[in-house]
Amino acid sequence: MNQISDTQFQADWLSLxxxxxxxxxxxxxxxRAAQCVPPGMRVLDLGSGTGSTARAFARAGxxxxxxxxxDTDEAHLQLAKARHPMAECVMGSVTDVEALPLEHxxxxxxxxxxxLMSTAWxxxxxxxxxxxxxxFYAALSFDGRMRWEPPVAADAxxxxxxxxxQRGDKGGxxxxxxxxxxxxxxxxxxxxFAVTLAGSDWVLGPDDAALQDEFVAGVARAAEEAGxxxxxxxxxxxxKAAGHSALRVGHTDLLAVxxxxxxxxx
Length: 266
Ligand SMILES: C[S@@+](CC[C@H](N)C(=O)[O-])C[C@H]1O[C@@H](n2cnc3c(N)ncnc32)[C@H](O)[C@@H]1O
Hints:
Helix content: 40-55%
Shape: globular
Bound molecules: S-adenosylmethionine
Number of strands: 10
Largest sheet: 8 strands, mixed
Order of helices and strands: HHEHEHEEHEHEEHEEHHE
CATH topology of the domain at 7-145 and 173-203 and 250-257: Rossmann fold
Structural class: alpha/beta
Strand content: 15-25%
Distance between the termini: 31 Å
CATH architecture of the domain at 7-145 and 173-203 and 250-257: 3-Layer(aba) Sandwich
């Protein structure tokens, strides 16, 4: 999920969550996505951040992929370039769907991005990728579930407030928030794509106390903005308990393949 605006803070957050993200991605869907890329074609990663999707592909053995990273955040792109010198980095907004650089692109990817976007954007993206015959792989869309063990009284109220906040206006249009994966699946199916969804929940334990702690802080900030008066006291209780709590955060991965497309790579 996307909860932090300050660039450095967000880069730290992306770094903190990367191990959990990589462990959570559905392994079979990632392999299917990688196999969609014909030899000699490249992968365009929307909202790339520092290049976590490229590293997830490399961890799975797909380390010869030519990447094009696209993001609005110059600092994220600089970090991505430092870690992936062969990648092309493009400063730009994913919202300008017609301007997305699809030349020699065999797969478009995204991760932890869809919840920010609108159904109108999905419709435009599916139309463009359908015309171009390019598959879309979007990992780690938050689906609204967060479950702590042991629970505390305000968990449900704070979680509900957070999810209201996630559905709020982001850049002039209602964000899909926790419904992002399902709404994206519906949008791509309407354009003739075959869509597969797979669970990619974070499963965190006491060893992930730092990530749990930061997650709780972000949830509380958003819940407070959404009017939840218990948010700050809840965060105090939760952050104290992070060293002996388990936390599951629901995520979904999606692969949308246009009609007639065949997997071509190994
Ligand atoms: C939560 S981060 C995820 C980054 C990366 N995909 C990952 O999984 O680590 C969301 C990223 O999307 C970028 N972003 C947000 N809105 C964008 C837009 N309209 N166009 C391009 N990038 C955008 C942010 O700058 C940020 O790098």
